[in-house]
Amino acid sequence: MPTSTDSTFVQLLGEQVRHEFTASQQYIAIAIWFDDLDLPRLAERFYAQSVEERNHAMMMVRYMLDRDWDVEIPGVDDVRNTFDKPADPIAVALAQEKKVTEQCEALFRAARAEGDVLSEQFMLWFLKEQVEEVASMNSLLTITQRAGDDWFQIEEHLAREPQSDASDNSAPEAAGGAL
Known about the structure:
The structure is a single chain. The chain is 69% helix and 0% strand. The protein is an all-alpha fold. The chain has one domain: Ferritin, core subunit, four-helix bundle (Ferritin, Up-down Bundle). It starts with 7 loop residues before the first helix and ends in a 19-residue tail after the last helix. The mean pLDDT is 93. This is Ferritin. One of its GO terms (molecular function) is ferrous iron binding. InterPro entries: Ferritin, Ferritin-like, Ferritin-like_diiron, Ferritin-like_SF, Ferritin_DPS_dom, Ferritin_prok.
């Protein structure tokens, strides 16, 4: 069993906790930017996304605790707070989701290289989640670009779009419970 002192996977997972918390903060900044522009559906979407990223970090913390690995809660990286138009923060979010996908793939490869089948299985849920996250953000960016300067078309699209059910019984447990 890997320990926190000799495992690339454990080291990467600790770093991923920081990435997930940073993503959560970035989504709060995006939500506030939309909220300030009186675009409530876009704001709601990114407030919810922030909570989801926080939950991902806490799922990783719970897994580390369950495996009896050292856990250190890191600070977060700087986030962007200002944008010119709605496509800008959504493009930032899409790039962020693509980066997280690469990070999750690296975690999966590290677990496989170390023969840690439990961690491989753990990372499968996150890989599935990233496919959904990238696709969703890509679609939102496309809709936003098509709307051009008519920002309220984006709001109307979100009003018509069915809301996804956030509960997933196959999701890992979050330390302290999911929000």
